[in-house]
Amino acid sequence: MADLEERYGREVVRLNRNEDLFPPLAGVREAVEDELPNVWMYPEESYSEFREAVASWIGTTPDRIVPAHGTQALIGTLAGLLLDPGHSVVVPRPTYGLYAQVSAARGADVHRVPLRDLRIDFDAVATTAADAGAKLVWICDPNNPTGSLATEDEWHAFLAALPDDCIAVVDEAYGDYVDPGSRVDRVRDVEAGARVVMLRTLSKLFGIAGLRLGYAVADPELAHYLDVVQEPFNVNRAALAAGRVCLAHPELIAERRQAVANARRILDDRLREAGLEPRPSQTNFVLVDTGVDDAALAQAVAEEGLLVRAGSEYGLDGYVRITVGPAELMERVAEALARARNTLVGSP
Fold it and tell me: What was the pLDDT predicted at 5?
């Protein structure tokens, strides 16, 4: 941040990383501080307390839970375990870039499937998987950077259409922001024996991205192999302590989800008033059709100390992606975007 603040000559707010911009959940800071006297010890290798906390939170058994230092680590571990040179994988486009990167690094052939109306085209993904004999399909739901959310019908039709030997890895990094009544319950798919691996993180709604903590939900046999091939002691003690506190208070999670939804609504309303078009989202970010050069717009608001993500980085020319934060910040970023857009289109 220091280099960015030096560049722009002011305090900078990152609305381009989809980090949690709200204060830490109650008890997290204290849990980390309480663990500091123990940092001389390796963490418990089985992570049993955290596994049990996750299992209780999502309603499954601990032997299906695989902790790791963030879902990025799990994405790499899954690719290393399941892919060999010449295997085929299917990845929607645009989506989180790491899926294609780690697959290509393993020597796999990556088949990209364009979105349809900025939503994952599940029919086309399943058809491509069948035609290519895919070993893996990577799905981000809700999808980053578009914010689109799969429906129950889309998901179950997709699962039924996948080849029998193809595994669907579903990254639910933003799933905790979704209203529980609108969320596909893939835990039950895993328990029923479907070839599904779920990935979840505590970097987003739980706000501990800097501590690096995530987990997979998988068939117990696959979960065992993931544990075997992961590097030992790969989750630090402070992260585990913070994670247990995060999951111990469902009421705080619901409050944070609602706070983000309220702030997102404010952002959407202000953007529409300014002539911009936000896409539907149940995440902590909003993709916005600006009608102007997105890179120029992002640079203009950066001069005001507000960093947003240019959509052209994803092949979405004319769009920007904005991380949702407290209401006052949303008012500020909407005003800055409106001013910058008016300048770019030549309005007064």
Answer: 64
